[in-house]
């Protein structure tokens, strides 16, 4: 590929809207361009990097025995009604009607479509297992698209689905995919961790996420310092403390004029936040629910959502709280509250705590569950933190930020039962197929790789994901001997199967070097003055900046070696 004929529109200025390194650098290096919120064009180099990810995914899927197909992006609403997800999926599902007034949606995921296919095509246990995948553009109307390719509305996903005769066989399919995912992310050269995860709107009983460790990650992981436990903090179980057995003291109402915030109330009443219980009020679907957590804790909304079986939970503002409870925020408490009450299990173990009195300017001391109020449910509802013990072994936990690049789910028979995807078993009985589903954020991986591999001058692609392996700088396009060598190296490398970009532009050496660093191509060859003087060309690794000087005839072999080393390192 010749730079002079390529569309690689690098930018000198950092685009203002880009908050994270990958977004900034992918824009600056001319890999992507924004069309509208969360929707991007992949320019030639961006697309080439995406194709590299796809190539690795396809190889590993084939190795694991999965077959590729391609399903439609437009899906009929009827299928989604069968599983009940047309309502349940919420506003991320982009819905529309066609000219015949048929309701449709753009596929955010394909459980319904694949289950519909398989229920028509697979009849017998002899046709199972099957594992099918596609690589396709997905659409999710994300509430906050951001960080470029990291959280788009339109993005490229690999999604795969397995169908088995029973749980044991489905467990085997899951394990195969789990192993394939580990190979994929290792081959991509990513520093990642598999973690236990929440199943979200996809549903199912069991799931793991694959997280690329990066400070800009939107997920928080807890990792045990001792055992293998690692989980998304949304999911991480908090160990309940033993019940406090001290005697219940008399309930006392205390005037707390204007004292609403936890710390202010604590200072005023001379207690610690650990002795106070907050009452947080949420809208959960149609109902309003109050949640009790200790004063120094946070509600984990995913846990709350799962407990209530709600599509979304949203914390109410002051007005919402007042409308629902008749009490101003700051004075809420469980005693006599008018809405459904759920309690974090830490609170259930406490005795004689402070809460609001459900009356402006008043709090209660010595509140006790069972005596003063009852709960609809007691459950693990709070956000874990680094002071909590590992739920498996009790050792210390470390918290890290991560970017979710893959997710594997054991779905069980939820979809197959809802959609009647049955097969005839060897005993002649019809049984629902047992399913699994497996997603990889193909375009997000490109962004995640850049988050992990960049410096102040630009991106540093790991060899397996690099859109091109070598950039060859001709620093003397008006000098015949330099140009002859550069051109002949270009042809030689191409003949040897090396992916090479020849920078044959009429630009100053300084800007060629700058662009080469920005693009992040792993190997750079420079043909310039050193060739005229000493007959050598320079070979430099983008990662680490190591330089070698070689005769032009040594370059080909050396490059081929470095490329195969770089592919293996991934
Ligand atoms: P997230 O929690 O980040 O929204 P998700 O749990 O909704 O992800 P899945 O439904 O498991 O995602 O989708 C499979 C994979 O697709 C994810 O692991 C992620 O890598 C990728 N992905 C999901 N949403 C987006 C998005 N908006 N932009 C880019 N990639 C995405
Ligand atoms: Mg999502």
Question: What can you see in these coordinates?
Answer:
With 570 residues, the protein is of the alpha+beta class. The chain has 16 helices and 31 strands. Strands 3, 7, 8, 9, 10, 11, 12, 21 and 24 form a 9-stranded mixed sheet that branches. A 5-stranded mixed sheet has the order 16-14-15-17-20. A 5-stranded mixed sheet has the order 28-27-29-30-31, sandwiched between helices. The longest helix has 21 residues, at 167-187. The structure holds adenosine-5'-triphosphate (ATP) and magnesium ion. Residues 109, 140, 142, 151-152, 155, 157, 200, 202, 404-407, 439, 441, 443-444 line the site of adenosine-5'-triphosphate.
Distinct small-molecule ligands in the complex: adenosine-5'-triphosphate, magnesium ion
Find the count of extended strands (DSSP E, 2+ residues).
31
At CATH level 3, the topology of the largest domain is BirA Bifunctional Protein, domain 2
Give start-end ranges of low-pLDDT stretches. none
Question: In the CATH classification, which architecture of the largest domain applies?
Answer: 2-Layer Sandwich
- Helical segment count: 16
Number of domains: 3
The helix fraction, in percent, is 25-40%
Largest sheet: 9 strands, mixed
* CATH homologous superfamily descriptor of the largest domain: Bira Bifunctional Protein, Domain 2
Shape: globular
Decide which structural class fits the backbone.
alpha+beta
């Amino acid at each position: 590929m010749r730079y002079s004929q390529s569309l690689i529109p690098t930018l000198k200025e950092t685009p203002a809207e880009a908050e994270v390194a990958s977004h900034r650098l992918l824009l600056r290096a001319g890999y992507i361009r924004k069309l509208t919120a969360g929707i991007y064009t992949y320019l030639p180099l961006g697309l080439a990097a995406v194709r590299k990810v796809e190539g690795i995914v396809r190889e590993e899927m084939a190795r694991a025995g999965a077959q590729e197909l391609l399903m439609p992006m437009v899906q009929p609403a009827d299928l989604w009604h069968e599983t009940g997800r047309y309502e349940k999926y919420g506003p991320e599902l982009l819905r529309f009607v066609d000219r015949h007034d048929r309701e449709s949606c753009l596929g955010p995921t394909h459980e319904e479509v694949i289950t519909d296919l398989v229920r028509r095509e697979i009849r017998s246990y002899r046709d199972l297992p099957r594992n099918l995948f596609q690589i396709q553009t997905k659409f999710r109307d994300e509430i906050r698209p951001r960080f470029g390719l990291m959280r788009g509305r339109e993005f490229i996903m690999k999604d795969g689905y397995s169908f088995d005769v029973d749980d044991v066989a489905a467990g085997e399919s899951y394990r195969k995919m789990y192993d394939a995912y580990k190979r994929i992310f290792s081959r991509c050269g990513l520093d990642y961790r598999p973690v236990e995860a929440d199943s979200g709107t996809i549903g199912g009983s069991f799931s793991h996420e694959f997280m690329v460790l990066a400070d800009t990650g939107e997920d928080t992981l807890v990792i045990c310092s001792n055992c293998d436990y690692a989980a998304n903090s949304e999911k991480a179980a908090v160990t309940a403390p033993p019940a406090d057995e001290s005697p219940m003291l008399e309930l006392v109402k205390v005037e707390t004029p204007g004292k609403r915030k936890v710390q202010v109330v604590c200072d005023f009443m001379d207690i610690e936040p650990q002795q106070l219980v907050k009452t947080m009020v949420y809208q959960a679907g149609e109902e309003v629910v109050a949640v009790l957590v200790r004063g120094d804790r946070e509600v984990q909304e995913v846990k709350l959502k799962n407990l209530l079986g709600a599509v979304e939970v949203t914390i109410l503002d002051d007005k919402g709280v007042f409308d629902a409870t008749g009490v101003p925020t700051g004075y809420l408490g469980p005693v006599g509250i008018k809405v459904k009450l759920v309690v974090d299990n830490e609170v259930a173990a406490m005795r004689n705590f402070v809460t609001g009195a459900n009356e402006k300017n008043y709090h209660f001391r010595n509140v006790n569950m069972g005596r003063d109020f009852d709960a609809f449910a007691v459950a693990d509802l709070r956000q874990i933190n680094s002071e909590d013990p590992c739920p498996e072994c009790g050792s210390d936990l470390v918290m890290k930020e991560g970017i979710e690049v893959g997710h594997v789910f054991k779905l069980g028979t939820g979809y197959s039962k809802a959609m009647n995807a049955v097969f005839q078993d060897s005993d002649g009985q019809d049984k629902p197929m047992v399913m699994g589903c497996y997603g990889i954020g193909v375009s997000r991986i490109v962004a995640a790789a850049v988050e992990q591999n960049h410096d102040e001058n630009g991106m540093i692609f790991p060899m397996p994901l690099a859109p091109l392996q070598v950039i060859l700088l001709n620093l003397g396009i008006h000098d015949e001997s330099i140009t002859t060598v550069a051109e002949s190296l270009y042809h030689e490398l191409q003949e040897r199967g090396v992916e090479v970009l020849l920078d044959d532009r009429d630009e100053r050496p300084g800007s060629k070097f700058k662009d080469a660093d920005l693009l992040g191509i792993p190997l750079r060859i420079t043909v310039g003055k050193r060739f005229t003087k000493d007959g050598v060309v320079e070979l430099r690794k983008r990662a680490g900046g190591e330089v070698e000087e070689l005769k032009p005839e040594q370059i080909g072999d050396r490059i081929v070696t470095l490329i195969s080393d770089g592919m293996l390192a991934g």
